[in-house]
Write a sequence for this structure.
């Protein structure tokens, strides 16, 4: 029986693993890929405080697993496929094993959806981005395109309009689905040019993005842009716990300030939880909060 099982080895899960094991808890972390999480896909990270000259997300995350293991956190390369609660304990199943724990921390993150244009994957990190807070700074006084018509696309277009020289906001229909108040702000922002009824066919460039080809009212149109920000929705990785905890209308796990979910003993941390700002530093903070409170819970309940 483990004190804590953590599912997901991104910044939230690895920090939870570090804190739980360092506080003396018997801790298991399950990660289906290589530990590190989605930041390992990023070629740049400039906003993790105290770490000033790392070259990439991969480099930033390099020592996190070993730091947790140093205090006894077991890390296994296994995918959790089922989670059940039995009395006061959790059972986590992987394709080959079954593990038991007193508490569970779910830190499986969320995944930005792809728009599906030619070159999208090839140019990710080379001009195609899914995070304005992370990458916006690289486009100071440059020209960017934002794809999407929801709240995220419009809010991020407004954010980028304060950094970039010009923002093309490209939407596949002639109406946004974002809140009217956000739409009003976008319509009133001089350096945002809205292009309705358009989809991106392809992105082109050499080493980095240099432009996009649009399908606009049935015709092709070329736009010179330095970057493309894709905001066409998020997939919250909540499958394992969606029948155990309360979710909000977007499928994010509801938590309180202790990272407690509606299920006793089950905590959520990082991008999977409601109102996450989806940043490494915030995910790490959540992981620490969840682990500390999970151990307090074990003590209080005398498990
Ligand atoms: P994740 O990092 O998504 O980790 C979740 C982990 O859970 C993954 O490793 C996944 O494999 C694992 N997992 C999922 N399901 C299972 C399962 N069933 N069993 C086992 N394991 C499972 N943030 C910044 O602060 N600064 C930046 O500059 C920045 N740049 C970014 C650039 C890119 C391209 C991307 C995609 C994101 C960027 N972010 C940045 C955001 C940051 O990466 C996330 O906020 C952060 O990684 C969230 O951490 P997390 O631990 O909640 O989730
Ligand atoms: P969303 O509401 O699902 O919007 C996705 C947008 O992308 C839609 O406009 C959609 O077009 C477009 N789209 C989807 N697939 C596409 C594709 N392949 N190519 C081009 N365009 C595509 O996603 P979101 O904006 O991330 O928001 C998710 C949820 O969070 C929403 O419920 C939103 O209200 C909420 N949210 C709220 C706030 C806030 O309250 N401040 C902030 C952010 C997000 P169509 O419109 O044609 O479908």
């Amino acid at each position: 029986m483990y004190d804590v099982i953590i599912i997901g080895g991104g910044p939230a899960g690895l920090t939870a693993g570090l804190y739980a094991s360092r506080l003396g808890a018997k801790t298991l972390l399950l990660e289906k890929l290589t530990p590190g999480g989605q930041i390992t896909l990023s070629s740049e990270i400039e906003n993790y405080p105290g770490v000033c000259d790392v070259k990439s997300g991969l480099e930033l995350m390099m020592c996190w697993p070993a730091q947790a293991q140093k205090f006894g956190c077991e890390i296994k390369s296994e995918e959790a496929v089922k989670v059940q609660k039995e009395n006061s304990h959790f059972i986590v199943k992987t394709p080959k094993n079954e593990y038991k724990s007193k508490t569970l921390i779910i830190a499986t993150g969320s995944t930005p959806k792809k728009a599906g244009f030619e070159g999208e994957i090839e140019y990710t990190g080379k001009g195609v981005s899914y995070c304005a807070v992370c990458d916006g700074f690289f486009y100071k006084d440059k020209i960017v395109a934002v794809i999407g018509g929801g709240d995220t696309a419009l809010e991020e277009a407004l954010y980028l309009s304060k950094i970039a020289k010009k923002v093309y906001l490209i939407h596949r229909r002639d109406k946004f689905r974002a809140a009217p108040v956000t739409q009003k702000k976008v319509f009133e922002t001089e350096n945002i040019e809205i292009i309705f009824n358009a989809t991106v066919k392809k992105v082109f460039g050499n080493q980095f993005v240099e432009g996009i080809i649009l399908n606009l009212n049935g015709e092709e149109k070329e736009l010179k842009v330095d970057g493309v920000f894709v905001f066409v929705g998020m997939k919250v990785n909540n499958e394992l716990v969606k029948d155990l905890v309360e979710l909000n209308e977007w499928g994010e796990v509801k938590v309180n300030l202790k990272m407690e979910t509606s299920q006793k003993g089950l905590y959520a941390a990082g991008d999977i939880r409601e109102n996450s700002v989806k940043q490494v530093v915030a995910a790490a903070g959540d992981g620490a909060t969840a682990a500390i409170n999970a151990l307090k819970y074990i003590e209080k309940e005398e498990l």
In short: The chain has a mean pLDDT of 96. The first strand starts at residue 2 and ends at 7. Residues 202 and 264 are 48 Å apart (CA to CA).
